[in-house]
Structures are given as C-alpha cells and as structure tokens.
Amino acid sequence: MVIGGDAVGMSAASQALRRAGRDALEVVVFERGHHVSYSACGIPYWVAGDVDGPDPLIARSAAAHRDNGIDLRLRTEVDGIDLDARTVQVRELDSDASSTEGFDELVVATGAVPVRPPLPGADAPGIYGVQTLDDGADLLDGLAERPRRAVVVGGGYIGVEMAEAMVRRGLEVTLVDQAPEPMTTLDPDMGALVREAMEGMDIRMRTGTPVSGFETGRDGRVTAVATEEGELPADIVVLGIGVRPNTELARVAGLPLGESGGVLTDLRMRVPGHDGVWAGGDCVEVFHRVSGARVHIPLGTHANKHGRVIGVNLGGGYATFPGVLGTAVSKVCDLEIGRTGLLEAEAGAAGFETVSATVDSTTRAGYFPGATAITVKVLAERRTGRLLGAQLVGREGTGKRVDVCAAALWNGMTVEEMINLDLGYAPPFAPVWDPVLVAARKASEAV
Amino acid sequence: MVIGGDAVGMSAASQALRRAGRDALEVVVFERGHHVSYSACGIPYWVAGDVDGPDPLIARSAAAHRDNGIDLRLRTEVDGIDLDARTVQVRELDSDASSTEGFDELVVATGAVPVRPPLPGADAPGIYGVQTLDDGADLLDGLAERPRRAVVVGGGYIGVEMAEAMVRRGLEVTLVDQAPEPMTTLDPDMGALVREAMEGMDIRMRTGTPVSGFETGRDGRVTAVATEEGELPADIVVLGIGVRPNTELARVAGLPLGESGGVLTDLRMRVPGHDGVWAGGDCVEVFHRVSGARVHIPLGTHANKHGRVIGVNLGGGYATFPGVLGTAVSKVCDLEIGRTGLLEAEAGAAGFETVSATVDSTTRAGYFPGATAITVKVLAERRTGRLLGAQLVGREGTGKRVDVCAAALWNGMTVEEMINLDLGYAPPFAPVWDPVLVAARKASEAV
C-alpha cells in the first residue's frame, strides 16, 4: 500500500510489480490530487509558455498505471495510519466516504508542503504557489487577467525560475528575498554573480529585504508586498519560499522524524523500528555524503531514485540509497547555475577547515564561436585537499559541468587528483584545460 | 632545454620557470616551425570559417614567452642528441647554420607526424594535411581556387571535422574510409549512428572502401581518389588519416620506445634509464588506466597535462601523470560524439568479459523545448559490474556528458554504484533520470 502518487509512490509501485509480478503482489496507491507522476519541476516552464502544459508534464497517466496493474485511487486522502492494526483510514474527497484498509507493507510518500509565510494577507487572491499542477493552472488563470507587475518572493531556484517565467510573460518583475544574495544554495560571492546577471535581465532585485506582509485592495486582491524598506507594488505575487516535509500523518502515527523534520529511513529506505514501513522522496531526510549530516533536499531526482530502491526491495530484490551530495542545477534566462557538495559556511559548520579557488574561464575554447563566460569555485579540505564542493555560474555549457564535480566528490577525490582527470576536449566543447580542472589546479596550490 | 615549442614544450618551460624563478633556471626551446603554443585542434574550425585564424589559435605568442624569460629559437631544428655528452646538434633552418648546445635537463616534445599513405600520387598538389598552421593556410589557399568537390580520406575525428568544414564551405563532400563505419573510436553500432547522421548532412559516406591511390591531371594536380570500388572525383583532397609519434630523433639517440612507437616515460614523465631526460605529448606512450596497456593517444589535453607535470618536476616540485582513459569528444555539424574507456573489441583484447547496454533518451526533459535525441552505450565487466567504457552519440548536450562517465571510470565505479550518482537535474538540463544513469541502470541488470 502506497500513500502518495507522485515520483516515489508510482516508481515504487511500478518497480515492485515489475519485479514480483502481478500475481504475487497487490498494489494500492492513494493519491489526494487529480494527477500522478507529474513533473512539478516543469511548472515554471509551463507558466513561462515554453511547455504547453499540463499534459506533457505528466510522465505516465493514471490509466497507464492502472493498465500496469496498480489499483490507483485518485482524490483519496489517508487520514490516519494504525501501525499496530496495520490499517489506514482513507477518505474519498469527492464523496466524503471513509473506510479502513489493511496493508502488509506501507510506503509513505507524502511529499512536501509549501512554506506559506505567517504574514498578514498571505492568503489573499493574486498570491500563488507553484507546487502542484493545480497551482500552475491557477497562476495561468491569474496571468490571463493581464497583470503588469509581478513580485516573486524568494530567491531560491523556484524563485529565480519563476522570475524568468514572469519576464518571459512580459511582466515587470521584482524579486524579493531576505538573504543578501539570491540562491543561498551558493556562497554569497557566487550568488552575487547571479544577482548581477538577473539585474542585467531587467529583474529588479530586492535582496536583504525581509517581507513583512501583503497589502490588499478593496476587492481583497493583493496590491503590494510590504517590506521593511517600503512597499513593492504587485498585480500578482508568486511565492517561491520553499517547502517542508509533509509528515503530519507519519508523526501522528508514531513514525520517527529527524531534526530536519523528515521521516527517518535506513539505507534501504525502511523506517527503522517499523518492519514493513518504507518512506522516500520529499517527506524524508537523506544522508549527506560529505557532511555526514541528515538533510532535507526535496528534489525529483532523489524521489525517483528512492522509488526505485523501495520498489526493488519490495519486489524481492536488493537496493540501497547511498545518500546525496546536494547537487543542483538551474537556469535563469541564459544563465546557468550548478552546485554540488558543501558551501563554505556548511563546510565550516560540519567541522571542516577549507581552502577555495575561483576561476573565470570559457565554456568552449576561447577562440571558438559561442564561447561564453563561466566562473567555477572549488572548495577543498585543508591539508588533505579532498574536494568538498563546487559551484558554477555562467552561460550555455555551464550547468551540467557540475556532474563531473559531483562524480569526483562522490568518490572522495582530492583536487590534486582531479587535475589529471581525462575529460573530453575539443574546441566546441571546452578549452584544452577544462574550467573545472583549472579550478581544481588552483585549489591544489592553496591546500 | 626543450625540443619542440607546442603544448608540452611551452607548458613545461613556463611552469618550470614559474616555479624555480628566472635566476635559478635557464630555459631554451627549439622549435622547427614559425609558431609556438598553437591549437592544432582548432584548424578544422579555421578552415570551416568559424574562426578567423590563424592568430586566435595561438594561445601565447613567441614574444610573450620571451617576455616570460624563455630563450625561444624558432625555425631551429634539432638534428641529433648526444646523451653521453649531454649536447644537441641544432640547425637554423633559414641560415642553415649549425651548432652544438649543451643541456643539464632535456625535454623531448617532438610531437607527431601525419600518416601519409604510401600510395601512388599521395604527394600531388591539391592533397592537404591538417596538422600545422601552415597546413591550414595551404588548405585555405586551395579553397580560394573554388573547388567544387572535396574528398576527405579518413573517418576519424579529424576526418569528420574536416568533412563538416568542407560542407560549411559549400563543397560537395565525400568521406572515404576502409573501416565499415566512421569513428573507429566507437563500437560499430555507435559508429553507424554517426554514418547515418552524416548521410543526413549530405555527406557521401564511402565506408568499407580502401583507398588505392590518387589520380592526377595533366598539370599534376589531384583529380580523383582511386579506390577498389572505383574513382571518387575530387578537386581537393583532405587527409585525416591520423598521426604517429615523431620519435626518429629519440630513437637514434637511444631513448627507449614502446610497442606503439612512442617514447617510454615513468609517472613523472622521465625517460627511464636516462636521468634528466623528460618526454611528453604526442611523441610518447601513455598508460591506459582501464586496459593497463601503453597506448599512443595524441591529444592536446594530454600534452598540456604532460607539460605541466614536467614543468612542476623540473621546477623542484612533485607531480605525476596517472594515465588516460581514452576520453574524446567531437562534433560533426550538430551531431556530438563522446567516448571514454574501452570499446567492446578493446575490452575483449584486454581480457575482459563484458556486458553492455544501449539506451535512447533525450538531453533535456522530454517535454522541454530543445530536448534532442541521445544514445548512450555503457560497457561493464561481467560479474563485477565495473564500468569499462561509455559511448554517446546525439545532438546538443550530448558530448560533454562523457565527462561524468570518465570520472566514474577513473574511480573504478560499478554500473550499480553509478545508478545513484547525484547528478544535476532540472528540466532544461536533463530528464529526471539522466541518460547516463539510465544506461548504467540497464547495464546493471545485465551484469
């Protein structure tokens, strides 16, 4: 039995059925919403008009899942879990009919819920979140009323992607965030490069500016975002403040939560102390391979891997999820941003002493048409020279260069070892010394 | 003292001087040609008209090197090395003046020489190589005479890049190669994808067709390439057959050569048995980290790393070159090709039993604009599942994905371990399961 029909839930259900066979396993999935297996990460591009959503964002339809043998119940909420009786209390949202259903194995895949600031006016019409497909449709309805000024609250990856979407829709865009620079998943010096690039895209950046509330007009609709430094007029407001694990159901049932608020799991994604209970995706904590801490990093790429691990194990196989590096890649107009591992502050908090190196280079051979600027920052442990993290900000060809850093980090390479990595070279793809290797080389001289 | 003023020689000279200081070290470089530190890899793009060469292809001018304290002697050939007397015999090509010069440390960086087929007519006017900047200038002079039909001999990366250059120049292009598919650095099934794509670019592909000679007209100029399957009319012929290590000088001096014909070195790029003699770049053999064999892989990226290693060591530091993976990336029009590690045949020859998996995916999320096809093939060792190689053929966003495979290969990862690699994901950059991970996943099921 699976609670939640998005990436983890549907991957686990499909993989388990594929391995064990329909005759051996009966799989029920309860999903509160109208859709399963959708790409929330695609919503900003649907809103921007790049993707003719929402259908393309649905990786596999409910009908296809049912054809594969999954008993999928949409618009059905689980209100309670009784771990001793091994039952769940379910309610059909449309009919309000309730029932109790038994399980042998339970997968908790309840995802995350958006953080809504506890501020006056935060529920006013004209203020939109961007988590579900319904949120995307609501926001597009709001845009159909031809607003002129948009304020995006939050400078993380959802915030910057939504700022781009609003620019592409022709709005005047202001981004407001309490942090001194956008993208707090980067060190401030790298975040500053993002801010400067976004200012160059005519996005007004109000960083270091806490939001204190939302002003509304006579009709109750939002008219401005109030900050400690004055009002930011807004016809439409998009909240990109982030999410927290959706664990109320798990907590009440008595499942263990970690310090970041996510459900605890072991390497096979089993909930410790509760045989036959599994959890994965945005509702769990994961192990950070560099810091050793347990962290909440809600990303579709992890959720899909968790789903596979749970499904393989449920289907009688063996698989583990060995943790994350905090790799992420995002894009604002033609600016690409990648990061993996620890920031300087995170490394310090974990107990590392560090050295760092930042280099400016080009994505292709300097003389090659389309060569664009890339800045790479590499963080390494003092004395050992072990790579601890990498951050990249630049134009086309920058973002996915984070992957080679991630693979080096995964394997515990030192920056000295990285210098000789045999990476692909040809003038349309890289300078003869790839920017990543130049950064490693410079960092190795500082170790 | 350095013989050869390209990547290895100038990097070694610069690095050694930077480390040791001008007062501690006197550095003389002999270079037979007119230029130093140039990008031979850029010549096809200069010929294509992408790069306004040759100046942009020169990474650092002779004057800049001299300003840095290097005693650089252009148009000066070394005719002999006396290892016992620790002298070299040099000749100024313009004046024909000869002299003997002593050395304490010697760097052999004589590069490679193009393979010219021992076929009738191979020296006829209208037949061009593409190794030096002078070759590039000659070919451009040939193109200025407005030839209509070009035949490119050789389907390796230089051949395919030159075929693109000729297409871009508006010529009717035929590529001829004796191998059944182009790009023999790929398995034949992946090479077939390259052939099909090139045929789609209106390049006539005559693979599996050995060249038997060159026909010439009354003026002695080439008129056709003769093959066992008939003549291929040509106004211009470009040879992209490859290169061999230029080791005649080293061999006569008594330096050890390996079975691939390159100079032997140890990990610090010292020639074994000859104190104070170093070698690097296209004239040496290198250690292949996967097969354990010594191989000749002439690439600028290795040459630059060799130069750094030699320079660090000469300057009193410590550095080693830990071998190669055979990583390469190339481009024909909008087709990108990457490979690292061993092919199936190479793995078999090295003694591995293998499993492989090939997957078709997209470079971005399937629904994202600009998502293009990518085919990834992964080769792993039977039973252990250790990654042995990867090949990628596809459109924009394909080529540099080889780097994450290279980093995984460098670290001896298994395909099972690769499945959970924390790579960057966002819809403009990758599907939620990166194609590389899908291939690893499929291969792991075959182990």
Protein described:
Chain A has 447 residues and is of the alpha/beta class. Chain A folds into three domains: 2-113 and 243-314, FAD/NAD(P)-binding domain (3-Layer(bba) Sandwich); 116-239, FAD/NAD(P)-binding domain, CATH 3.50.50; 336-446, 2-Layer Sandwich (Enolase-like, domain 1), CATH 3.30.390. Chain A contains twelve helices and 25 strands. Chain A has a five-stranded parallel sheet. In chain A, a hairpin with a 2-residue loop joins strand 14 (222-227) and strand 15. In chain A, helix 1 runs parallel beside helix 8 (300-314). Chain A is globular and about 65 Å long. The model of chain A has no long low-confidence stretch (mean pLDDT 96). At the A-B interface, helix 8, strand 21, strand 22 and helix 10 of A face helix 8, strand 21, strand 22 and helix 10 of B.
Keywords summarizing the entry:
FAD/NAD(P)-binding domain; Enolase-like, domain 1; five-stranded parallel β-sheet; 25 strands; 447 residues; 3 domains; globular; homodimer
Estimated share of beta-strand residues of chain A:
25-35%
**Total count of strands of chain A:** 25
Q: Which outline of chain A best applies? A: globular
Can you identify the CATH superfamily of the largest domain in chain A?
A: FAD/NAD(P)-binding domain
Distance between the termini of chain A: 52 Å
Biggest sheet character of chain A:
5 strands, parallel
Low-confidence stretches of chain A: none
| Domains of chain A, number | 3
Q: What is the average per-residue confidence, as pLDDT of chain A, rounded to a whole number?
A: 96
Highest-level CATH class of the largest domain in chain A: Alpha Beta
CATH architecture of the largest domain in chain A: 3-Layer(bba) Sandwich
